[in-house]
Amino acid sequence: MKILIIGANGTIGKKLTPQLAKQHEIITAGRNSGEVRVDISSEESIKEMFQQVKNIDACICIAASGPLDNFSTLTEKQLLEDFKGKLFGQMNLVLIGQEYLNNNGCFTLTSGVFADIPYKGVTGGAIISGGLHSFVLSASIELPRGLRINVVSPSMVEDSVADFGYLFPGLKAVSMKELVDAYEKTINENITGQILRVY
Amino acid sequence: MKILIIGANGTIGKKLTPQLAKQHEIITAGRNSGEVRVDISSEESIKEMFQQVKNIDACICIAASGPLDNFSTLTEKQLLEDFKGKLFGQMNLVLIGQEYLNNNGCFTLTSGVFADIPYKGVTGGAIISGGLHSFVLSASIELPRGLRINVVSPSMVEDSVADFGYLFPGLKAVSMKELVDAYEKTINENITGQILRVY
């Protein structure tokens, strides 16, 4: 399969990309690195990417991270700003990409544990992930030409504990292997409309 | 308790309001009817409402309905438009209202079944409801002064079947009594961070 990985150079991408490359043809994409440059917060940039990269069987997005926020001063304006990349960016990949992927291709998006388990300071991130889950359920019954869609919902990964662990006391980190396995499952198994909770 | 009901004149509100009025002091609010006029898609209008109506113990929102959409032509612009009332409007009620409700007061929002069970043509509504669920989980651990928050997630109600039933073949309608009971539960029981699925 020909797989486009957006965010191939990030914490998860660095481990996932070489693993998938053992069996598949990989095209890496990212804002500041990768064979193709894309800013997923821009519909135009997403369109240009799909026009440039042809005959894709799978599109995996592990690009955007969730925001931190202060609930007592949180506003609609800040939420809209925070939604751009990880929520609208990933939804736009699907809404735009549905015209470009090969028949029976698949999308794999990335949400996060805060959809289900709240922590202080990540309300925006929680809404993004909860919204993505319901989007994926809907998209799975709407997508044309046998296209599949799934979303991986990771907890903090072990490779991020040193940098972010102090923000989420008590949150159990998951192994990179477990997480990479989940992304691989969305590629190799004929599943759709699944939320793969890795925590 | 002094309860502000936004959308008191809607399908659900018409049944809920007299039921709650048996035991509580009710203030009705709505865009085109009610003792107080409010457009929940406007932050300014929400602020004016809370400044006008003092000493509220509970704020129930059953105001906004979900959109219908066509997945193959759906865009970020349309989603943003659809999110205004039911998603951002209800979140703004909480983000702004957290300063105004009495100590130990409570918010009750309204989502919908499509967060969990997809139907064609309601992707925007699904994202709104899924996002609201995760927002309520987060808000429940963030709100100050003992404030509580819950969300009622109804399926289609029996009183709407004649108008909307044809859009959702096979979707089981819920009785108004069951639904009214769920809203009452959020007022009368000391629960928070709950998603009350009524379907």
What features would you describe in this structure?
2 copies of one chain form a homodimer. Chain A is α/β, with parallel strands linked by helices. Chain A has one domain: Rossmann fold (3-Layer(aba) Sandwich), CATH 3.40.50.720. The first copy, chain A, contains 6 helices and 7 strands, in the order E-H-E-E-H-E-H-E-H-E-H-H-E. Chain A has helices at residues 13-21, 43-52, 76-97, 123-142, 161-164, 176-188; strands at 2-6, 25-30, 36-37, 58-61, 106-110, 148-154, 194-198. In chain A, helix 1 (13-21) links the parallel strand 1 (2-6) and strand 2. In chain A, helix 2 (43-52) packs parallel to helix 3 and helix 3 runs parallel beside helix 4 (123-142). The relative contact order of chain A is 0.16. The mean pLDDT of chain A is 95. Chain A binds chain B through residues 43, 71-72, 74-76, 79-80, 88, 91-92, 95, 98, 114-120, 122-123, 126-135, 137-144, 193, and chain B through 43, 71-72, 74-76, 79-80, 88, 91-92, 95, 98, 114-120, 122-123, 126-135, 137-144, 193.
- Cα(first) to Cα(last) distance of chain A is 28 Å
Largest β-sheet summary of chain A: 7 strands, parallel
CATH architecture call of chain A? 3-Layer(aba) Sandwich
Name the poorly predicted regions of chain A.
none
Overall form of chain A:
globular
**Average pLDDT over all residues of chain A:** 95
Q: Looking at CATH, which topology of chain A would you report?
A: Rossmann fold
What's the arrangement of secondary structure elements?
The structure is a homodimer of 199-residue chains.
Chain A: E1 2-6, H1 13-21, E2 25-30, E3 36-37, H2 43-52, E4 58-61, H3 76-97, E5 106-110, H4 123-142, E6 148-154, H5 161-164, H6 176-188, E7 194-198
Parallel strand pairs in A: 1-2, 1-4, 2-3, 4-5, 5-6, 6-7
Helix pairs in contact in A: 1-6, 2-3, 3-4
